[in-house]
Design brief:
single chain, 349 residues, alpha/beta, 35% helix, globular, binds zinc ion
């Protein structure tokens, strides 16, 4: 019997390393897991053994709970060795949070893309147009109720809480560059749409991808919109960035920042493309059947069927704006901005 071949992802590890322990996913390349204080409750980090010490890829959220786990690793996993470089895939607090703290402790450098460093400083130091109030104004223009916008303001600078220190100087990582990490060559694959200049690292010799947040096995990567570029087609950029992962060899071991390592990168890219296309189709239909032009906030229930907490609500409206921006860019929806700044979307006439 020829059963239809349904391509699936393969997960070589049934479970993550327990807190404070590691799993060696390739000779000298270690998987660590750290807690996160969110609905998404963990992040994967990677330690690559060098001739002297280790390169760390991503550093975990910069809170006391994660630093306690780090102190365990310093005493056990590192066993007197040093961290000689911290590479951050992007500026988000679960990745960059402890980078400067660790770099200061060991007297090493943080390496990352330039746009990621600049976003980190802009948000941590609340420079316009990256302030909480700029995000609040963007979401308000897209119909978010005042009580939720106020909730965002009341939270204060959540980014600085997750990233208490930033490096004074850094080593810049460029798209297309080749980095030597733990005795292996890794090509820098740029990713756009999730963050301004995300870095994924691909080792062609051993078909391994340190994916960061650009290719996750279970959840779809968050694609938001920055108040600095309110009409940006971040979803289009994200989907475009996936092409590089689609072309990797089928047996590539993907080491994602969330979830379990997997094989099947092109299968996962196809799933993500189908997922976003379905959402775009649903949005187009919802706007077409609406009696009046709709806001991003109006169509949240189309994209998210589950109840959302405040934190998820901000991710959700960013995601909604990104999808609507993409449809406008593709010439499938009409954007209308009222004199008071309110942004609404309508079917093309
Ligand atoms: Zn991220």
């Amino acid at each position: 019997v020829n059963a239809p071949h349904v391509p699936v992802l393969e997960f070589p590890y049934a479970a993550p390393p327990p807190q404070g322990a590691t799993i060696e996913v390739a000779p000298g390349l270690f998987w660590l897991r750290m807690p996160l204080p969110f609905a998404l409750d963990h992040i994967n980090l990677w330690l690559a053994r060098e001739d002297r010490g280790y390169t760390l890829i991503d550093a975990g959220f910069g809170d006391a709970r994660t630093r306690e786990v780090w102190n365990t690793h310093f005493a056990t996993t590192l066993d007197g060795s040093e961290i000689v470089r911290v590479i951050a895939t992007h500026y988000h607090p679960d990745h960059l949070g402890n980078a400067a703290w660790i770099a200061t402790r060991f007297g090493c450098k943080v390496a990352m893309a330039a746009a990621e460093l600049l976003y980190a400083y802009s948000i941590a130091e609340q420079r316009r147009p990256f302030r909480q109030s700029d995000y609040g104004a963007l979401f308000a223009a897209h119909g978010m109720p005042a009580e939720h916008v106020d909730g965002l303001t009341r939270r204060g600078n959540g980014y600085a809480r997750g990233v208490p220190e930033l490096p004074d100087t850094y080593q810049r990582i460029l798209a297309g560059e080749r980095l030597r990490i733990g005795g292996r060559d890794f090509d820098v694959i740029p990713g756009y749409g999730h963050s301004p200049e995300h870095v994924s690292l691909y080792c062609a010799d051993e078909a391994m991808l340190i994916a960061g947040d650009m290719l996750l096995p279970k959840i779809s990567t968050n694609v938001g919109v920055s108040p600095a570029e309110p009409e940006g087609d971040t979803l289009g950029r994200f989907l475009g960035s996936l092409a590089a992962f689609e072309q990797l060899p089928a047996d590539t071991l993907v080491l994602p920042s969330h979830g379990l390592p997997f094989r099947g990168s092109s299968v996962r890219v196809a799933q993500l493309r189908a997922h976003h296309q379905q959402r775009l189709d649903e949005l187009t239909a919802a706007v077409a059947t609406a009696k009046a032009p709709v806001s991003a906030n109006d169509i949240l229930p189309v994209l998210f069927r589950r109840p959302l907490d405040l934190q998820q609500r901000f991710f959700a409206i960013g995601e909604a704006i990104a999808h609507l921006n993409h449809l406008c860019r593709a010439g499938q929806l009409d954007r209308r901005t009222a004199p008071d700044g309110a942004v609404r979307f309508a079917a093309l006439e």
